[in-house]
Design goal:
Blueprint lengths: L2 H35 E6 L6 H6 L3 E3 L2 E4 L2 E4 L6 H9 L5 E3 L3 H14 L2 E6 L7 H15 L5 E5 L4 H16 L4 H13 L1 E6 L3 H6 L5 H9 L2 E8 L2 E9 L1 H15 L7 E6 L3 H15 L3 E6 L2 H7 L4 E6 L4
Parallel strand pairs: 1-2, 1-6, 6-7, 11-12
Antiparallel strand pairs: 3-4, 3-5, 8-9, 8-13, 9-10, 11-13
């Protein structure tokens, strides 16, 4: 190769390299500016995949899981797999809300930076986290009266809660205003359906959700309860014998309640049972033509009550 040809090749390479580098720098800068505009905060009860948390720069505040007087941070110092394995061995875990001091430190940090924030909280009927965050907000505003912080009670749980948070993150990336995001988040939260089933009533008994007699009889008869979330509360709706019948009934409820399921983003969370989650995903695809899904494990905080083998489906009963 001649010297002029080598110089030309080097020039072309450098030109293309710097062109791409500048494009990436600009793209990263713009993304960072968007993220700095409005900060989405949520807690670990949302059960969103870590890839989404990282991609959209969502602030994730951990709920507390305790065992033998030891405190763990959900998704940080304890993982769901450890919880489910422990429950299979007979261990009983307890959970607690996000400590007020955690909110005070976090909100103060964003108030000092002058960032606008939206905190979307785990259902107030299932955790005291929402009330704690409201209390701390009032305290922070006394020192930083210009701090713009919206706190929304999602009245949702697990990945149903997560889908609401995800929509908020998408709107931030699209450059929507705080008012628009808050309005849309409230709509999604109000119309989010949750259909849960647990594999063993024993776990609900340990968590104080059912009586010992109900758990014992349910185990003998292979009863799988169906539950949903109504106005933020976990409500049993049906008792069905056998896993196959439960999964069939889940699809029937989706058809009864869902709106345009073909074009929805469907959430599926599971208690260390990815095989069942993928199976119900295929059933939903075949039945309704749904194309978009988020599938993830239930986190430690919710899993500590529902137990391994839990399966939950989330969808909207009304589209925008």
């Amino acid at each position: 190769m001649s010297k002029s040809a080598r110089l030309k090749k080097t020039y072309t390479f450098l030109k293309d390299f710097f062109h791409l580098s500048i494009n990436y720098i600009i793209e990263d800068f713009l993304k960072e500016m968007i993220h700095l505009g409005i900060k989405i905060i949520t807690d670990s009860g949302s059960d969103l995949p870590i890839e989404i948390i990282n991609k959209y720069n969502i602030e994730l505040v951990p709920l507390i899981v305790t065992y033998d007087d030891n405190k763990y941070l959900d998704r940080k110092t304890i993982k769901a797999k450890e919880i489910f394995d422990g429950m299979r061995e007979g261990k009983v875990y307890k959970t607690a809300q996000v400590p007020p001091a955690t909110f005070e430190e976090l909100f103060t940090q964003y108030a000092q930076k002058g960032e606008e924030c939206i905190y979307i909280a785990f259902s107030s009927e299932l955790s005291g986290t929402y009330q704690s965050s409201k209390m701390i907000k009032e305290k922070i505003l006394k020192e930083y009266p210009d701090f713009k912080l919206d706190i929304i009670n999602s009245k949702c749980a697990s990945l149903g809660f997560g889908l609401v948070v995800y929509q908020a993150a998408l709107m931030v990336e699209a450059g929507k205003s705080r008012e628009e995001i808050v309005e849309k988040v409230k709509f999604y939260a109000e119309h989010m359906e949750h259909i849960f089933t647990v594999d063993d009533l024993e776990y609900l008994f340990r968590g104080g959700r059912v009586s010992k007699t109900a758990a014992f009889i349910g185990g003998l008869l292979n009863i799988k309860p169906l539950l949903d979330v109504e106005d933020g509360k976990l409500i049993p709706i049906e008792k069905i014998r056998g896993r196959k019948k439960v999964m069939k009934r889940i699809l029937e409820i989706m058809e009864e309640r869902g709106d345009n399921l073909e074009n929805q983003l469907i959430g599926i969370s599971h208690g260390d049972d990815l095989e069942a989650a993928l199976k119900v995903k295929e059933m939903i695809k075949n039945e309704f033509g749904s194309k978009k899904f988020i599938v993830n494990s239930i986190g430690s905080a919710i899993g500590a009550h529902s137990g391994p083998g839990t399966l939950a489906i989330f969808f909207l009963n009304k589209l925008v």
